[in-house]
Amino acid sequence: MTAALFIMLFSFRYFYRSAYPVKYQSSVELASSVNAVPVSLIYAVIRTESGFNPSAVSGAEATGLMQIRKDTFDWVQYRLGEEPAPFEILFDGETNIRYGVALLSILINEFGSVENAVCAYHAGWGSVKSWLNNPDYSPDGFNIENIPFGDTRQYLQKVMQTKKIYETLYPE
Q1: Which of 4, 100, 133, 170 lies most in the core, judged by the most C-beta atoms within 10 Å?
Q2: How many helices (H) and strands (E) are present in the chain, helices listed first?
Q3: How many other CB atoms are found less than 10 A from the CB of residue 136?
Q4: Residue 4's pLDDT is what?
Q5: CB-hemisphere CA count at 13 Å for 161?
Q6: Contact residues for 3 (Cβ-Cβ < 8 A; gap 6+)
Q7: What pLDDT is recorded for position 76?
Q8: What span, in angstroms and rounded, lies between the C-alpha atoms of 98 and 77?
Q9: What is the reported pTM?
Q10: Strand, helix or coil at 51?
Q11: Domain map of the chain by residue range?
């Protein structure tokens, strides 16, 4: 390998690792282990949702790294059998990761695939439930083939593409 090729490959990898960081690594790895959710998926959702900004607040009032809304936070706490906690704790990165990954785990278990879970993460549990019951969207009742919301379709594509990039840059 020539020195120029080596430098080019190193620069390319450095650029991509800067664009696709692994911040909050210990929290992500712990949440991944506890919830059986791939690390690459967690990073893909964080990067897509907030760009790793723990103070992010969306127009829909979703908060923190994984952009969790208050009603979703309350639902996850209920599903985990926890007492209600103040919504503001989601501005803490580790706490936001804990609940966001718990949500992903619940959705993966409920809907049977990462793709369905990512759709539910974006469009909501009820939307995905109805899509799976509609043969126009899910001919087999298990996989969503036609996502009726364009923004959810784009979100799924972006998260899955970002997940693949993380798997390539940081093989486990």
Answers
A1: 100
A2: 8, 0
A3: 9
A4: 54
A5: 7
A6: none
A7: 98
A8: 11
A9: 0.91
A10: coil
A11: 23-169
Amino acid at 102: A
The predicted structure's pLDDT at residue 5: 46
Buried b (16+ CB within 10 A) or exposed e, 42-69: bbbbbbbbbeeebebeeeeebbbbbbbb
24, 103, 67, 18 alpha-carbon torsion, rounded to 10°? 30
100 touches 68 (CB < 8 A): yes
Specify the CATH class of 23-169 in words.
mainly alpha
Is the four-CA dihedral 60, 65, 70, 72 of positive or negative sign? positive
Identify any residues that bridge with 63 across adjacent strands, giving them in sequence order: 57, 68
pLDDT on residue 11: 59
Give rounded-to-5 percent helix, strand, coil for the chain: 65, 0, 35
* Amino acid identity, position 172: E
Backbone angles phi, psi at 63, to 5 degrees: -125, 145
The parts of the chain modelled with pLDDT lower than 70 are 1-12
Rounded to whole angstroms, the Cα distance separating 48 from 108 reads 18
Q: Which of 62, 72, 56 is nearest to 107 (CA)?
A: 72
Residue 12 is predicted with a pLDDT of 64
